[in-house]
Design a protein that fits this description.
Belongs to the ABC transporter superfamily. This protein has about 250 residues and is α/β, with parallel strands linked by helices. It is about 35% helix and about 25% strand. The strands form two sheets. Strands 6-7-8-3-9-10 form a six-stranded mixed sheet, sandwiched between helices.
Amino acid sequence: MEKAIMVKGLQKSYKQHHVLKGVDFEVSKGSIFALLGSNGAGKTTVVKILSTLLKPDSGTVTVNGFDVASKPGQVRQSISLTGQFAAVDEILTGRENLIMIARLRHLANPRQVADDLLKRFGLTDAADRKPSTYSGGMRRRLDIALSLVGSPPVLFLDEPTTGLDPEARIEVWKIVKELADGGTTVFLTTQYLEEAEQLAGQIAILHEGRIIASGTLAELKQLFPKAQVEYVEKQPTLEEIFLAIIGHKEAM
Ligand SMILES: Nc1ncnc2c1ncn2[C@@H]1O[C@H](COP(=O)(O)OP(=O)(O)OP(=O)(O)O)[C@@H](O)[C@H]1O
Ligand SMILES: [Mg+2]
């Protein structure tokens, strides 16, 4: 299968701090790839290198067929990045934010592009308000909508659902799935194992500077011995207690 991202022997240090010690992975076109790792593992560092914001010390990285070191301009034209912290402008309204990015990307009809994305992300009613009045989920949706202006083939999402409530998280998952179904390659980082389970065809775990495990969820599950089933006394849930009390009262 054709590769949207190829990373080989990637190393990066911040002064003495050797963060990436030889990272290797590949991402197929149109797939969702999740990079897992604890705080400080180097996930954002990987995203920054892949999106040309940071230079690697060594190794080769290609995105959409372009080398990040020798063809950074072409890489940038192929990608968009939704960073770990929301990058929306607070003075402009949601609609104006989108129109501004569409103009910066030299698109033909910025207003139409903005209207289409607002509709797709359920933000039409909120379009003419400033993001400061949005909920966390709405801001994140606007943030992702902004990164889709111009339909880049490769999308980087650095912890797209951190801080969102479960409902907003499910909404973002739905959007990400739709994007991949439409052929976009999605590279995301997350600390939520469930997020990777829900979304990613391929999962890689970054730990102490290297990918220590990677594969599909099924492949990763095989790395662990099957759990022994033990006899454990089952405690009633609050719901069961509640139902029992209600039933008891009704029976009286
Ligand atoms: N500009 C920088 N200068 C020095 N050290 C840095 C810099 N950026 C990151 N680091 C260090 O590199 C390590 C990896 O950071 P990075 O942000 O890539 O981790 P992360 O996996 O994204 O973490 P988190 O889950 O908290 O977002 C951390 O120890 C961090 O302190
Ligand atoms: Mg990070």
